[in-house]
Amino acid sequence: MNLKTIDKLSDFISIENQYHYEDFNIFFSDEYKNYITSSTECYKLFYNSILIIPVIIKKHFIFKYAEFISEPAKLIPSDIDIKQYSLFIDSVCDELKTTYKIDWINQPSSATLFAAPPSHSKSIPFGSHVIDLTLSEGEIFSKIHSKHRNAIKKGEKDGVRVVVGGLELISDYYSIDKETWARSNKTAYSQQQYESLLGHLNKYSKVFISYYNNQPQTGAIILYNRQMAYYLYGASITRPHTGAGNLLQWHVIKTMKGLNVMKYSFVGCRINADENSKYYNIQRFKERFGGDLMSVTLFKVIYKPLKYYLYKIIVSAILSIKGEKIVIAKDIIDQEYEKWNG
Q1: Of the candidates 198, 255, 231, which has an alpha carbon nearest to the alpha carbon of residue 31?
Q2: pTM (2 decimals)?
Q3: Beta-strand (E) ranges in the chain?
Q4: Which of 52, 189, 256, 335 sits CB 3.0–4.6 Å from 47 for a disulfide?
Q5: pLDDT at position 136 over 80
Q6: How many angstroms separate the CA atoms of 285 and 228, rounded?
Q7: Could you say which DSSP state residue 120 is in?
Q8: Distance between CA 81 and CA 190 in Å, rounded?
Q9: What pLDDT is stored for residue 16 in this prediction?
Q10: Cα-flanking dihedrals φ and ψ of residue 8, to 5°?
Q11: What was the pLDDT predicted at 322?
């Protein structure tokens, strides 16, 4: 399929000058590439005449693996059939295996919207709720579930305030982020990791914090450009004031719409989640904002199973040392696979 590679989007645009930055989501951008490569990962764009996709390649000791950080973007105005789409994904996987000598391809980010998995992959159905921000504010609000609308109004009535900013809010965000991770007996990302993300993407990121009686309640870190805004990270104290999280998301929606962003993704939805699982309430919260559920897929491709499982054992041991209650590290695919293929 005449597959080509290039190091960054600006180089691609300068060569193929019929394209513009706004044709691609934020994960294609030079700014995101610079953020990724600041921690030594290799970033590449693979493309042919109809599709382009960003990939990161990582090497840890004897292990080398890749990860798709976005679904492919179209390079032509017409629709692309699923066969062309699948052939492109397969060609990228083959290139990663043969030229870059990777051992496996990780599960992509839950922010991705893949229409089909590669051949010979382990995959599950997945989704994301996406709001159309080109609708009027009234139309968007009318699609929100009545319980969420009431919670938004209660938050406003009770004096919950939402502050929008950047790096200056990261300390407050980090304080509730640690509390969020602790509820799952997991270690939070470091404050420095969030600062690096916001520092590299300062023009394309916002931090939202809701406050009640001047105390942080809930938070969100949003990455965006004109194509799409992503609810990339979220956090809350254990018992936030009623409506604080709902009001925060309503502020995100209005802010992104005001910036002429076309869509807002709540990032990640397990299909048919067990009502007794912690994911059920999280997904119901997202669903009730009225976005369309984009039915997609998550996948991974394992070329060298022994190396892959050795890596998982090492990661699990490190997490156990940090105090996390994990036997063998599992991604979403591991957790959900039997439900769909048992």
Answers
A1: 198
A2: 0.94
A3: 4-6, 42-47, 51-60, 63-68, 73-74, 104-105, 122-132, 161-165, 205-212, 215-224, 229-236, 263-265, 292-302
A4: 52
A5: yes
A6: 20
A7: T
A8: 42
A9: 87
A10: -155, 160
A11: 61
